[in-house]
Amino acid sequence: MLERTRARRQALQILYQREITGQNVRSILDTHTYNDEDGEPSQYSRELALGTETNQDAIDAEIEMTSQHWSLMRMPFVDRNILRLAVYEIVYEDGMPASVAINEAVELAKAYGGDDSPKFVNGVLGKIAEMRGDAVPAPIEDSQPETGDGVEEEGV
Length: 156
Hints:
Layout: H1 3-21, H2 25-30, H3 43-54, H4 56-66, H5 77-92, H6 98-112, H7 117-131
Helix pairs in contact: 1-3, 1-5, 3-5, 4-5, 5-6, 5-7, 6-7
């Protein structure tokens, strides 16, 4: 598994844990109460989780503005945190192509979300990237098989 893919997965798990337990990211990291199945969170994983938490109000506003007919609190915890993580990467990580962040988020949604999660995540993030003038991956079609294969990162 690619290092940044693993870092995103670790960051998602930390953000999910934060939402379930009410602990902040720093506390989860400092007390080592995170899931260490993938080992200790990498520096990039820590940056993603902390950056997402720090910028959550602006990130949530971006998601709310884009996800028509879906308030943030109506979204499943996993989808909500996948979106937060990807929006953080798209908006705050310099040099991160939106298409990479979106593809990685879709893969997380395939692995951890519900049946409709990949398409939902792709749609919301595609709109955000489009509004920002970024290149957007092709929409997910219902007929496409969902293999759960990892996404290769080019130039990242």
